Amino acid sequence: MGLYDRYLALRIRYSDAALPETVAVIVTERDLLEADAYETLEDCFEWAFAFGAERVVVYVSVLDSEVVDTIRRELADVDAPRELAVRGPGDDEQADAPIQVGIGLGGKHEFAAAVQGLAEEVEAGELAPEDIDEAAIEGELVFPVQPDLVIKTGAERLSDFMIWQSVYSELYFTDVNWRDFRRRDYLRALRDYQNRQRRFGR
Length: 202
Prior knowledge:
alpha/beta, globular
């Protein structure tokens, strides 16, 4: 670890500002085709938990649905420091693990499915329309977490990422591509987060 990395780590640890409890990272299927991509993912998990995160969410945007099964198989071999839950298109079971990975499960689709589920409960007489609130919607989402910090590598776009859950998230965009993402880049994101004043829509 270089001197600059140590400097960043000390600034973060000795700051009075809070660190994110839930960190989300957005990558693409192309990112995961790069050499050492999954090793970088393993490292990122370690960095996140070492600096106070309780949950890590990884969203993999895909253009070709045929790659979903391949990515699932690769993730099964990842050396994750904590329990990992993977969800993809067609999965409706909530992800309840310290590490949650979504593969090609777009935010619009997830939100639409949640609304459809609530509508079916209303039609069945199990739920009154006036009882539908934020908690009810969140109870139907596959990923019922609200990221404090969302990190996007390589481009300034969110790729249909968790549109409900990330409404109050702090967004951090870096020009560094996933293949080149290192500990110092993660620490820079944390330092940027600490320097922000969170308003939560106020």
